[in-house]
Automatic annotation (TrEMBL):
This is DUF5689 domain-containing protein. The keyword Signal applies. Residues 1-23 form the signal peptide. It comes from the Bacteria. Residues 44-274 form the DUF5689 domain. Keywords: Signal. It holds the Pfam family DUF5689.
Length: 476
């Protein structure tokens, strides 16, 4: 052992002497890792020009993809995705500008991870020769041509197709509201102000994680809602993300992420590179107040208010019988509706929807006449509801004890949810009608109004329709 230690010391001394003899004046040869300005042999076009070329190919030739060959063209953009946390896999998202972008594109690359090569904010170029552009999952996508589809660029060709620029820019999120969501803003880095996760997902005894639930298969889908409009959007996280088991933040605030679409390309989704940009740290949530008397076991025989809408004029706004039909935003109102098809009405029903409305936002109220809850006991409320692919639109059932009866003052009154009332959901079959249950109002004092509030818009992801019928308020 002593002999081994002696020779070990001699060896270390020789090695140290060799290293010192190779270095003069304390100068070391440091590898040059700086990215140099590329010498592109061709022309650079915008991502928007790429998009327009694809749209022209679709319009002129009916082809859903466009393949480039010997074009000597490149697109340029800034990387706004980051796969370090595992929420992106073998793809990057690029947008055309570091601030106020107009178009973005997804590039498929058979490499993981990619953040060590092109980090967030890195300016880069993509060579188009040999690539195919099309819409995959509803978003503009580039990849290697494989028949009529785009596949991932092989790892061996990474440096040939994805070319780095020395510039690493500060990306300024594009501030959007839910009503601003459209195809032009997909694949862009955005900011949503004054948002929160749905109360049922973050409050109570079983708060949800980003994507760590037993029911989460490929993605965890949570509901993000706007405190300003009440609109909602699906917040998506990969089950391969390393933060999937973190609890969702329970507060409200600001979220920076990317606008994308779901697997089927049918609905807008929001996702993030990692949780550090989910700044929902305001403890003051924007949930409406609730009045919850529970469900009644029986209903009385005294009818305080009822409407089955049979006397209403079809396809005309609901009027009469004490109703207040008020448009807060947009052009759509609650109207009488009758249909005997797959989504049949119950005779004549009341409905509201924003399909093909052209409205950025549609908010409509249908409010009952005043009910004096001190004049009797055992009040109950019931109705039937159905929908036509409600998507991201929403219907709320609310009560106010301080609305003064003036239509213009409806939005400024204090409205509370009636959580005991069952409202049809987007997952429920559109051809069925669902009873609300006998909602007890027996714990309420004073005079109040009950309202059906529709929230949606002309955008395809929030343009659903709700129908209601057989409305009754009873007491003992």
């Amino acid at each position: 052992m002593k002999t081994f230690n002696f020779y070990k010391i001699i060896a270390l001394f020789v090695a140290a002497t060799f290293v010192v003899s190779c270095v003069q004046d304390d100068e070391f040869d440091i590898p040059n890792t700086a990215v140099e300005a590329p010498n592109l042999e061709g022309d650079v076009i915008t991502i928007d020009a790429l998009y327009n070329a694809l749209q022209q190919e679709i319009a002129n030739n009916g082809n859903e993809t466009l393949t480039y060959a010997e074009s000597n063209l490149f697109i340029e953009g800034y990387v706004v995705s980051n796969d370090e946390a595992g929420n992106f896999f073998e793809e990057i998202i690029m947008q055309d500008k570091a601030s106020n972008p107009t178009r973005g594109v997804r590039v498929l690359i058979d490499v993981s991870p990619l953040f060590t090569y092109v980090e967030f904010g890195r300016k880069a170029y993509v060579k188009l020769d040999g690539l195919t552009v099309g819409f995959s999952n509803g978003v503009l996508t580039l990849g290697i041509q494989d028949g009529t589809s785009a596949e991932k660029i092989p790892e061996a060709l990474l440096g040939e197709y994805l070319i780095r620029d020395p510039e690493v820019a500060t990306i300024e999120p594009k501030v959007l509201t839910f009503s601003d969501f459209n195809d032009d803003n997909v694949n862009q880095y955005i900011r949503l102000n004054n948002v929160q996760f749905e109360a049922s997902q973050v409050l109570g005894d079983n708060p949800q994680t980003y994507a760590g639930g037993a029911e989460d298969q490929f993605d965890g889908e949570r509901v993000l809602e706007s405190c300003e409009s009440g609109q909602t959007v699906v917040f998506s996280t990969s089950t391969f993300a390393d933060y999937k088991s973190l609890l969702l933040p329970a507060g409200s605030g600001t979220l920076d992420g990317l606008l994308t679409k779901n697997f089927f390309g049918e609905e807008f989704n929001v996702t993030v590179n990692d949780p550090t940009t989910v700044a929902l740290d305001n403890d003051e949530r924007c949930d409406p107040e609730q009045v919850d008397c529970g469900l009644a076991t029986a209903t009385g025989s005294n009818v305080l208010f009822t409407d089955f809408f049979e006397t209403q004029a079809q396809n005309s706004p609901i009027t009469g019988n004490g109703w207040t039909n008020f448009i807060e935003e947009g052009t759509e109102s609650w109207e009488a509706y009758s249909d005997t098809g797959t989504n049949a009405s119950l005779g004549i029903s009341a409905r509201m929807g924003s399909f093909n409305s052209g409205d950025d936002s549609s908010i409509g109220w249908l409010v009952t006449p005043a009910i004096d809850f001190d004049a009797q006991e055992g009040e109950t409320f019931s109705f039937q509801s159905s929908n036509s692919f409600s998507d991201g639109s929403e219907m709320q059932v609310l009560i106010s004890l301080d609305w003064d009866g003036t239509a213009a003052n409806i939005p400024s009154a204090n409205w509370s949810e009636l959580p005991a009332a069952f409202i049809v959901g987007d997952d429920d079959f559109f051809g069925d009608w669902f009873p609300s249950g006998n909602v007890s109002l027996d714990c309420i004092e004073g005079t109040g109004h009950i309202a059906f509030k529709y929230i949606g818009g002309g955008n395809a992801d929030i343009d659903g329709t709700y129908e209601i019928d057989e409305i009754e308020i009873r007491s003992n």
